[in-house]
Amino acid sequence: MAKGSFGYIKKMRRVMFLHTLILFLIAFLIFFVGKYRYSDYATMFSITAIVVCIPASMRCVSFIMFMIHKGGDGSFFESCRQINDEHFFYDSVITTTGESFDVYAFFISPESVVGFCPDPKKDISKLEKHLREMFARNDLKSVGIKIFKEEDRFLKRSSELAGRITDIYNTDSIRSLISNLSL
Known about the structure:
Strand order of the largest sheet: 1-2-3-4
Distance between the termini: 14 Å
Number of strands: 4
Largest sheet: 4 strands, mixed
Shape: elongated
Structural class: alpha+beta
Oligomer: single chain
Radius of gyration: 21 Å
Number of domains: 2
């Protein structure tokens, strides 16, 4: 499943869990086979098992990150889909300095990007500032950025922007940037 697809976070939880489990099982298998079968060479097997634990630990951290965050629900997805599904980027986690934001969806148009981050505890002005800085660094200064906490305001603004799109514009650079900024 590609980044930006609905259900990406939930899917990645399962994938990262399986990767973590398999890699740790391989490490333990190497370690115990080395201890049991080749007692003279157990040190080499122990070192190999430790080396296998490095990617397993990295996958475990990814699994924990995906467990912390959640994506949008099915009814929200259906509401977005009715507007114009091809311009949405779903289930995104944007990390700024010291804080991460669950953005359930971005609507991407050539001149604007609007997002939906429903967490009432988060200061979305920090997210908007971070995104503006990242867009400016990537020569996308002219793109307007607005993040909403209310679902109905987000959907209304997305619908307005979708109504303005008459031609198929190239928004690949914006989509690619958001993908790179996302977990």
